[in-house]
Amino acid sequence: MALVEAGLDRPRWLSRWTQEHLRVLFFSLGKIARAPLAAGLTALVIGIALALPAGLYVAVSNLSRIGYSWQESLQISLFLKDTVASSRGEALARELRNAAGVATTTYISREQSMVEFRELSGFGEALDLLQDNPLPAVIAVTPEPRQSKAEVQALLERLSSLPEVDLAKLDQQWMERLYAVLAIAERAVGIIALLLGLAVMVIIGNTIRLDVEARREEIEVMKLIGAPSSFVRRPFLYSGFWFGFGGGLIAWLLVAVGTALLEVPTAELAALYGSNERLIGLSPRDGLSLVLAGIVLGWAGAFVTVTRRIAEIEPK
Amino acid sequence: MTELIRFDQVSYRYPGGLDVLSGVSFEIAQGEMVYVTGPSGAGKTTLLRLIAALCRVNRGQLVVMGQNLATIKPRQVPAFRQRLGMVFQNFNLLYDRTVFDNVALPLVIRGYAHQDIARRVRGALDAVGLLGKERVLPLTLSGGEQQRVGIARAIVTKPALILADEPTGNLDPEMALEIMRGFARFNEAGVTVLIATHAIDLIEALPRRIIHLEQGHVTDKRPRAASELRREPMHGAG
Is the dihedral of CA A181, A184, A188, A194 positive or negative? Predict the structure, then answer.
């Protein structure tokens, strides 16, 4: 009889751990695959729940990007004092090009200002009646891109304190409004993501709860022969893993399809505003983060449910 | 001989119920073959459940394989049960898994490597005469074969103690005798075997020690001839 064989070697810890987890990983996948319709529907619901905040995130990211690109077209106008000579104005424009936070400068003399104003304003004949040119020389300063609002404000204050400058002006009210709207949108995306994340946990938890009930006798047998809770729990956690993984992939796919469908009309809209901006979807890193979020939510939802349910099941 | 199980004035009462066991005391040494007998409701199954840490004594001391089960912590219970082999009247098999997977389960729980599992499962199935049925689902087997799968699962970890609760309760007499002889062979190989049974006829011809229970009390701790018990009422599991 084989019962009293000499003791067998116990496997090494790493090999044992790896083998067991791989076994349960694919065992859980196999169980899910045996009911593909039900599993597919569950993953689809999770995918839709994850796609909503992910899609909103894409929308807000694109708006932020457009906002930044508009910020690049911001200019600070330095109206010079009438006493500043043209040569000094040109020299000052050259000096400011090397100043911190400044990308480019353009000097516009009083005469150039008059020419432009005459062309653009339609008051050419009225201007002929004036004896002197009332327009000041201007240095148009373009700040370096990607600066914060505070940095641009500091630059403005620094430039306005120059002795040659009579008035420094930056029209950024529209930008502040845009950023305020984006801040609200980002907060809303966070809240929606939190709520839908909880929904994903509930969906997966409920699916796992039904699975635990269906396998109640199996759990009792396992406990009878000495299975610790971690062993009993493991296949359900991996089920949660697979549901979250599948849901994350579906969410990524849905956002990618949505982005592709909106890309052409968005480009056409941007062209109407003279912009060549394009809609940008989830990056590979964002997509992987979405799948990872699905996995974490799936695992957590399964863990909360299965831990409580398994503790209630004891062998008869 | 080394003491394997010690009941010392053990009492047990189901929550809200009557005393099932009351002041039970006995010892079982390593390598013994012991039958627990008694009429229905005498406390046979409860006695085995206490040994398997499926319930906890209310009073007294119960020490099994050096583990005091009166004070065992819940987190220690799985590791303790892994040291036992258990056989049940209703087999308690997983019917959506093959014979191999059922027998392998205790080894998988204990984290054995695949090659060790395969070797041990084949050895256990060979011991119960089921070698070659590894890929079969239990439902395609007869009751006797299913019970032998359960026994293979119990012995595959080479436990020091096998507990069997009415292991022949669902089998015909011929198969039941074969199962009992199998337990006797395991015992000859050095395993302590404790069987709760009311099948007195079956054990009459086998080497034995009997612990007889009546209304939760041990009435005779000495080995008794089965013929003495025949006159007593026996109606299924205790």
Answer: positive
pLDDT in tens, chain B (238 residues): 688 999 999 999 988 778 899 999 999 999 999 999 988 888 999 999 999 999 999 899 999 999 999 899 989 999 999 999 999 888 899 998 999 999 999 998 888 888 889 999 999 999 898 999 999 999 999 988 999 999 999 999 999 999 999 888 877 888 888 888 888 888 988 999 999 988 777 777 777 788 999 888 888 644 455 455 555 554 444 4
Closest CA to A286 of A53, A10, A123: A53
C-alpha–C-alpha distance, residues A8 and B119, integer Å: 10
Please check whether residue A57 is in contact with residue A283, taking contact to mean a CB–CB distance below 8 angstroms: no
Same domain, A187 and A279: yes
Coil, helix or strand for A177? helix
Nearest by CB: A315 against B54, B155, B185: B54
Q: Which residue of B has its CA nearest to A9?
A: B116
What is the ipTM, given to two decimal places? 0.84
Q: Which of A136, A171, A206 is the last residue of a domain?
A: A171
Does the residue A84 lie in any domain?
Answer: yes
Among chain B residues, the shortest Cα distance to A3 is held by: B158
Neighbours of B162 (CB within 10 A): 23
> In this complex, which of B111, B113, B191 lies closest to A3 when CB atoms are compared?
B191
Q: Which of A40, A1, A34, A21 is nearest to A238 (CA)?
A: A21
- Helix (H) or strand (E) run with residue B78 in it: helix B77-81
3-class DSSP assignment, residue B155: helix
CA atoms of A30 and A168, how far apart (whole Å): 69
Do A150 and A121 have their domain in common?
A: yes
What 3-state class would DSSP assign to B142? coil
For residues A197 and A141, membership in a common domain is answered with no
Q: Do A239 and A110 share a structural domain?
A: no
Global confidence as pTM: 0.71
Nearest CA to CA, how far is B110 from chain A (Å)? 8
Lookup: tokens for A255: 């956002």
Cross-chain Cβ contact B106/A225 below 8 Å:
yes
How far is B232 from chain A, CA to nearest CA, in Å? Answer: 28
Cβ–Cβ gap B79/A226 under 8 Å: yes
Kindly give the pairing relationship between strand B33-37 and strand B209-214: parallel
| Plot region of B158 (φ>0 → left; ψ -120 to 50 → alpha; else → beta) | left
User: Is residue A79 a contact partner of residue A136, using CB atoms and an 8 Å limit?
Assistant: yes
Query: CA triplet B6, B11, B12: central angle to 5 degrees?
Result: 115
Q: In terms of CA atoms, which chain A residue is nearest residue B85?
A: A225
**A134 in a domain, yes or no?**
yes
The answer to whether A245 and A291 are in contact (CB under 8 A) is yes
Per the structure, how many domains does chain A have? 2
